[in-house]
Design a protein that fits this description.
single chain, mainly alpha
Length: 259
């Protein structure tokens, strides 16, 4: 609508220009919602603007054909086509790998916490604990970006390293950042199971279920804690309650196997 109202009927290039601009109108104010990211622009966010851009460029190239030697013009088109193909292949290859894509994003937006957080999670899941800790430590300075998840990540990493003292410090910081953060309580429970402090672990798992009664991981962990203490009836009670929350087949199979 904006394009149609603002275009100059005597100059089709004005129409293409406003077509391109229209795709960007809402983006700068929308970026203020995540001000710590800066202004991040990715090609796939602007399909309509891209179409306008290519139509404009194509029209200009057709006009240049009148003033260029035929062979040179076709050579120029061929080179541009090769470049766009190579660029597209590189972008698609990068997009297929979550790690490579986020490394590229982190490199080009150094003060953006989102790719760093994703890389930290990827490293933690790959058991590359040192890299995960390094990324999570970088994230600590972004206090406005999900601090409970950042401290949770550090706590889980140090739990895996069996550095239980530091792990507990970070996990407690996680639930201090968000007192209703059930994942933090569940991880504190796992930490205390590793320390063989089952009573403390039980209380943390109960806190996790208090804030998220349907969290099957906390429920399974609480049931396992009861089993470790030969409290089978309480374990069965937890699992039966948990079973009522879930309809997914794989989750129910896991719960029923525990029962």
């Amino acid at each position: 609508i904006l394009c149609l109202r603002l275009r100059n009927k005597n100059n089709i290039y004005h129409f293409y220009f406003w077509w391109i601009i229209a795709g960007f109108v809402l983006f700068p104010p929308a970026s203020l919602a995540h001000y710590y990211m800066g202004l991040v622009i990715e090609p796939h966010w602007f399909y309509l603007s891209s179409i306008g851009w290519f139509v404009l460029c194509s029209s200009i190239l057709l006009q240049l054909k009148k003033y260029c030697h035929r062979v040179l013009w076709y050579l120029f088109i061929f080179v541009i086509g090769l470049y766009l193909f190579a660029f597209n292949q590189q972008y698609m290859r990068r997009s297929l790998s979550s790690k490579e894509y986020n490394e590229f994003w982190a490199q080009n937006t150094t003060d953006n916490p989102i790719p760093k957080f994703t890389l930290a999670v990827i490293a933690a899941n790959s058991m590359d604990t040192d890299s995960a800790i390094s990324y999570f430590n970088e994230l600590v300075k972004f206090k406005e970006y999900d601090p409970e998840a950042t401290y949770l990540g550090l706590g889980v990493c140090y739990t895996n390293l069996k550095d239980y003292k530091r792990a507990e410090e970070y996990l407690l910081e996680s639930v201090r950042s968000n007192p209703a953060y059930y994942l933090g309580y569940n991880s504190l429970g796992v930490l205390n199971v590793a320390k063989k402090d089952y009573l403390k672990a039980e209380n943390y798992f109960k806190m996790a279920l208090l804030f998220c009664p349907s969290d099957y991981e906390s429920g399974l962990n609480l049931a396992d804690t009861y089993v470790s203490q030969f409290r089978y009836k309480e374990a069965i009670n937890v699992l039966e309650k948990l079973d009522n929350y879930h309809q997914k087949k794989d989750i129910r199979i896991e719960i029923m196997s525990k029962l």
